[in-house]
Design goal:
Blueprint: H1 2-16, H2 32-43, H3 47-60, H4 65-77, H5 81-94, H6 99-111, H7 115-128, H8 132-148, H9 152-165, H10 170-182, H11 186-200, H12 205-221, H13 225-232, H14 239-245, H15 249-261, H16 265-278, H17 283-296, H18 301-314, H19 318-334, H20 338-351, H21 356-368, H22 372-385, H23 389-406, H24 409-417, H25 424-438
Helix pairs in contact: 1-2, 2-3, 3-4, 4-5, 5-6, 6-7, 7-8, 8-9, 9-10, 10-11, 10-12, 11-12, 12-13, 15-16, 15-17, 15-25, 16-17, 18-19, 19-20, 19-21, 20-21, 21-22, 21-23, 22-23, 23-24, 23-25, 24-25
Length: 444
């Protein structure tokens, strides 16, 4: 008991020497005995008894912030967050730089899932906290909350501040690089990783891959593809393999091929050019560009169409008529005459309503005419007839695009998830990623 009182006297003396509360007769320590009793009960987890003693101490010294804080601790342990918050607010009014009060109040808000308010309070607590471990915890809570809310600029500022206080913590350099990449501060991202590279170089890939991934990502977006892929060779581990593959020229060449098949020519050309920007020797990208150029050539199409229309006019065989209208539809599509292509597919389907090629072309045409519901119906009928995995994947990919453009994103995701064959599988994954980006779900 004497030791407890002696320790308490030292504690009170050291803290109150830094406060401005000199307008009461502190020397008398009128509430000290009750405070000491409360401390003993609190150490034994008898919080209800401790609270009674703290109340008596506070009655005698109503401006002693240490007594009131201990009271708040017990109220918190007794599941009385409202009362604890009121007590802590009073502590802060009495001593505005008392870090433990801000920290406990932050914990109360965090328990209620109000992490925004908790982060604000931990931010203040960190300013006054002297213990390094506690200060670091508070700083990281603030950083992670801003990251969760995608407040990149604020997070970046908080990371910089925390780095000055804990320069040996390599996690801060990773976070700095990650957020710098979000903010397109690519050179700063590279510098952050290079600062700690001697420390991470000897770590197992399971630990250092993420650091090299961020550095490679920065090089990539500075168009320094050689350094990007050289750096990424050190990050080729676990999930990062797939992340890196997303930036490969082979992937962009696949995307170009897939989008060409569904007549998304602007996207196809952009992806082919991206592939060649990364790898000027990519044969597939050149082939796709040649295909695109070929699809623009329509010099002899009109004469061919005239002959096909004549053939359709006089053809008596139903199956043959359907095939002729399929050719007409393809030629009309090559001229971007979607209305004429729609008429051709509609006519063809009157002769053979289960013709998978006509159903697909009908859906493709309706998609480009923005008649999404009708396009989806046609494509679903086509899918029922398709057994070839590549054909099936092409049709399923187009169906996903239809649902995406219609705003039915959950159904679009399901369609894209069912695409199995290349190049459409990569394109479907790309579309899913674009949806995630639009919804703010994607992470670097």
């Amino acid at each position: 008991m004497k030791k407890t009182i002696y320790f308490t006297l030292i504690l009170l003396g050291s803290v109150f020497s830094f406060t401005s509360f000199t307008n009461f007769a502190y020397a008398q320590h009128e509430g000290l005995d009750w405070f000491a009793n409360g401390e003993r009960h609190k150490q034994q987890a008898r919080y209800d008894l401790a609270l009674q003693e703290y109340d008596k101490a506070v009655q005698r010294e109503p401006r002693n912030h240490l007594y009131i804080f201990s009271k708040a601790q017990c109220e918190y342990q007794l599941k009385k967050p409202k009362e604890a918050a009121q007590s802590l607010s009073y502590v802060i009014r009495l001593n505005s730089n008392y870090s433990p009060a801000y920290a406990l109040l932050a914990k109360i808000y965090a328990d209620q899932n109000d992490n925004v308010k908790a982060a604000q309070l931990y931010d203040i607590a960190a300013r006054y906290e002297q213990e390094k471990d506690k200060k670091q915890f508070y700083r990281f809570f603030v950083i992670k909350q801003n990251l969760a809310k995608k407040n990149w600029t604020t997070a970046f500022e908080k990371i910089k501040i925390t780095k000055t206080e804990f320069p040996e913590n390599i996690e801060l350099y990773y976070l700095e690089a990650q957020v710098a990449n979000y903010l397109t501060k690519y050179r700063e991202a590279i510098e952050a990783i290079e600062t700690i590279e001697p420390k991470i170089a000897t770590l197992h890939p399971s630990e250092n891959a993420r650091y090299y991934y961020q550095k490679g990502y920065a090089y990539y977006h500075l168009d320094n593809f050689e350094k990007a892929f050289k750096t990424w060779s050190k990050a080729n581990y676990g999930n990062f393999k797939n992340k890196i593959e997303e930036f490969s020229p082979a992937r962009y060449a696949y995307l170009a091929e897939a989008y060409t098949e569904v007549r998304q020519f602007n996207e196809a050309q952009a992806y082919a050019e991206k592939a060649l920007k990364i790898d000027p020797n990519n044969a597939s990208a050149y082939f796709t560009l040649a295909n695109l150029q070929d699809k623009k050539a329509t010099a002899n199409v009109d004469k061919t169409l005239e002959l096909y229309y004549k053939s359709a006019q006089f053809e008596k065989d139903l199956k043959r008529s359907a095939q002729i209208y399929e050719q007409i539809a393809r030629l009309e599509l090559s001229k971007n005459n979607y209305e004429n292509a729609l008429k051709a597919t509609t006519n063809g389907l009157t002769f053979n309503s289960a013709n998978k090629n006509l159903l697909y072309l009908n859906g493709l045409t309706l998609f480009h005419l923005r008649k999404h519901q009708e396009a989806a119906e046609a494509l679903q009928k086509a899918l029922a007839q398709m057994r070839d995995p590549v054909e099936h994947s092409r049709c399923m990919f187009l169906l996903g695009l239809v649902y995406r453009n219609e705003g039915k994103l959950d159904i679009a995701r399901r369609a894209f998830a069912n695409v199995q064959a290349q190049p459409f599988k990569i394109a479907a994954t790309n579309e899913t990623k674009l949806i995630q980006q639009a919804e703010g779900e994607e992470e670097l």
